[in-house]
């Protein structure tokens, strides 16, 4: 009987929607206001570093600088580099520009005009600018439209447009002026213009030589890019000569707001990419919304009798009234039908329940409260733990991306049998108890736990999913996080770790792969806890693990500032161990050498060195000045002065290096790493 009632409810709802939808659609159409144009204009006649407008509105990333001598943007920055090979940089407008109307999917129309020159570095005085320019060159320059203001692409043939962190659906568009031929990317020669849509491989390439333009001749060239968004039509000119004109739909490769500017790179061969001037104008379509089809003009005319309305205007005023009456009548009928059917069905179901089942009240569940998932729910969310859904793995298990029936994306950690069997005195009830305890810990810088799954064979934890992934992808990849974002990450992690310690808990697995970034690039700590031992006293265990957390946090800080991992094999022998190298640089007062040079001149060096000193403090022996996380947070927030570091590396009970950073005063700091 219950299914019969639900059938009639569904049938009635469908019938009513078929009646109401055309009316609502018509009213929505009437409520759409006139289209307007949103215009943005930029103009830079030169790029002098002493101009406050330039410094404020032009953001430099990677190896890029403002040249006072030429009044130009230069990529790479030769003043801070002895080796210009394999460098990448960007110069973009500091604020996002509206490039797409999301309601209609119409891309903005824009016009970009800029002058540029490719030259040798000042060290290469033998360059011949009158003719051949020794025919070497770097990789080239690109005008870019990208979704963020901190990513720097790979050097070499990637022209700093894209990097490994950019996924297949990364929205970006570029027009490249390439001076290297890369057959693997389909380049026709070493003097071409290419249009790139979400990929480093150009969808269209044009031989610039056909227009009599040679990028490597040392001359200043003028480029003009004109795009008509409503027609989806692009024109590219070099000087007065058009080199491309054709149909091009940019809408699949644009977000509503994008950052515009330039990127350039070098490979084994080098050149300086100079941008001397730039003007940019964009016009995007938008629609105003008005409360009804009645215009202010018609009201004024009707109120003061300023003429007779036409029959068309009159009908447009009367029509909403008829629609409103129909809408009210249909809704009243719908309410009556639903109320009667619901009452009948509920009465019959309650009678059936009274005979078969005892009356049982369901307690409402708070939203987002962690719950227990069934193995079938988790399997369905991960498509049967398909390999395409794997996000990563470590010694404790494998992470999967999952999608719940309500559309919510989650990350699921599936503990390995080896990890579960390796725990001393471990049983599943204790693990579930620890998961339950940690799931109740809430903080903006801790990954929320959505729930868990456990049966006779499997134990899993369901986390909230973070689309920007883990920090190591952004920190150690080819992209370059600016200093302001790195400092924010350090503070976020310190806040999250300090909160855990205040609750007598410990992370026990502090490293960059366990730090995730949300859509606003706020750092959150994940994968905390779940490292069990046979220690009887949880208070003693927490105390030891918290001290180890501080030590690991110190190494993490060194990684963030230096932009490299704790152990690197592709550097000189004396620099491979990050912790050892950092202490040696402190002893000779050369800590600035640790700061990631890829951040360029925008880094606040004094601030970066202060953060480095906080990281070194965290790696001191426990009885020789190692702070607690509460003090670390105060240091970072400038609420407390930093104690002076010892002039030399303190003597530790164990070899003091990143390789055995998990050993602190005889206790295992970070097992199962």
Automatic annotation (TrEMBL):
Keyword Manganese set for record: no
Source organism (scientific name): Dovyalis caffra
Location of the protein in the cell: Membrane
Protein name: Protein kinase domain-containing protein
Any one biological process term the GO annotation gives: defense response
Transmembrane segments: 6-24, 324-344
Phylogenetic lineage: Eukaryota, Viridiplantae, Streptophyta, Embryophyta, Tracheophyta
Membrane topology: Single-pass type I membrane protein
Protein kinase domain residues: 385-636
Family, per entry: In the N-terminal section; belongs to the leguminous lectin family. Belongs to the leguminous lectin family.
InterPro entries documented for this protein: ConA-like_dom_sf (IPR013320), Kinase-like_dom_sf (IPR011009), L-type_Lectin-RKs (IPR050528), Legume_lectin_dom (IPR001220), Prot_kinase_dom (IPR000719), Ser-Thr/Tyr_kinase_cat_dom (IPR001245)
Any one Gene Ontology cellular component term annotated for this protein: membrane
Domain of life: Eukaryota
Keywords on record: ATP-binding, Lectin, Membrane, Nucleotide-binding, Receptor, Signal, Transmembrane, Transmembrane helix
């Amino acid at each position: 009987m219950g299914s019969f009632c639900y059938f009639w409810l569904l049938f009635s709802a469908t019938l009513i929607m078929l009646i109401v939808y055309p009316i609502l659609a018509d009213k929505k159409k009437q409520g759409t206001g006139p289209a307007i144009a949103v215009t943005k204009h930029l103009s830079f006649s030169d790029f002098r570093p002493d101009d406050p407008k330039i410094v404020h509105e032009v953001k430099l990333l990677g190896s890029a600088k403002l040249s006072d001598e030429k009044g130009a943007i230069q990529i790479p920055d030769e003043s801070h580099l002895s080796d210009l090979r394999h460098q990448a940089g960007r110069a973009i407008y500091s604020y996002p520009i509206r490039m797409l109307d999301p309601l209609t999917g119409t891309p903005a129309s824009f016009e970009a005009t800029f002058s540029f020159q490719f030259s040798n570095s000042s060290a290469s005085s033998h360059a011949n600018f009158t003719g051949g320019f020794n025919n070497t060159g770097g990789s080239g320059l690109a005008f870019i439209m990208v979704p963020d203001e901190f990513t720097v692409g790979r050097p070499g043939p990637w022209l700093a447009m894209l990097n490994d962190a950019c996924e297949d659906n990364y929205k970006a568009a570029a027009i490249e002026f390439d001076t290297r031929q890369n057959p693997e990317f389909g380049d026709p020669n070493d003097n071409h213009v290419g249009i790139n849509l979400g990929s480093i491989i150009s969808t269209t390439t044009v031989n610039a030589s056909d227009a009599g333009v040679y990028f490597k001749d040392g001359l200043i060239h003028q480029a003009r890019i004109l795009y008509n968004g409503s027609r989806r039509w692009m024109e590219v000119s070099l000087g007065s000569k058009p080199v491309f004109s054709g149909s091009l739909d940019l809408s699949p490769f644009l977000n509503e707001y994008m950052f515009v500017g330039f990127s350039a790179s070098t490979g084994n061969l080098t050149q300086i990419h100079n941008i001397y001037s730039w003007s940019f104008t964009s016009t995007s379509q938008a629609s105003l919304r008005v409360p009804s089809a009645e215009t202010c003009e018609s009201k004024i005319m009707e109120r003061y009798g300023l003429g007779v309305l036409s029959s068309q205007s009159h009908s447009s005023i009367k029509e909403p009234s008829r629609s409103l009456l129909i809408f009210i009548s249909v809704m009243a009928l719908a309410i009556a039908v639903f109320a009667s059917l619901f009452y009948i069905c509920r009465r019959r179901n309650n009678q059936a329940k009274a005979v078969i089942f005892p009356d049982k009240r369901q307690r409402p569940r708070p939203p987002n409260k962690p719950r227990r998932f069934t193995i079938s729910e988790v399997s369905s969310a991960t498509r049967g733990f398909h390999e395409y859904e794997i996000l990563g793995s470590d010694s404790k298990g494998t992470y999967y991306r999952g999608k719940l029936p309500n559309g919510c994306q989650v990350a699921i950690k599936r503990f390995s049998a080896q990890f579960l069997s390796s725990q001393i005195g471990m049983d599943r009830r204790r693990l579930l108890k620890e998961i339950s305890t940690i799931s109740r810990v809430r903080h903006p810088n801790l990954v929320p736990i959505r729930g868990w799954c456990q049966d006779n064979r499997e134990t899993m934890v369901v986390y909230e999913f973070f689309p920007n992934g883990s920090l190591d992808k952004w920190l150690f990849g080819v992209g370059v996080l600016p200093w302001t974002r790195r400092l924010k990450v350090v503070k976020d992690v310190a806040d999250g770790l300090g909160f855990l310690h205040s609750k007598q808990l410990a992370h026990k697995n502090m490293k960059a792969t366990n730090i995730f970034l949300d859509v606003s690039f706020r750092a959150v700590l994940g994968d905390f806890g779940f490292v069990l031992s046979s220690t009887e006293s949880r208070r003693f265990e927490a105390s030891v693990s918290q001290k180890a957390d501080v030590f690991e946090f110190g190494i993490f800080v060194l990684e963030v500032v230096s932009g490299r991992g704790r152990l690197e094999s592709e550097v000189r022998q004396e620099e491979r161990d990050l912790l050892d190298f950092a202490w040696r640089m402190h002893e000779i007062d050369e800590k600035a050498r640790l700061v990631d040079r890829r951040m360029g001149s925008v880094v606040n060096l004094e601030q970066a060195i202060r953060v480095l000193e906080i990281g070194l403090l965290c790696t001191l022996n426990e009885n020789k000045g190692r702070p607690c996380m509460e003090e670390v947070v105060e240091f970072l927030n400038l609420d407390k002065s930093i104690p002076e570091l010892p002039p030399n590396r303190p003597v530790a009970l164990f070899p003091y290096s990143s390789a055995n950073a998990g050993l602190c005063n005889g206790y295992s700091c970070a097992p199962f790493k």
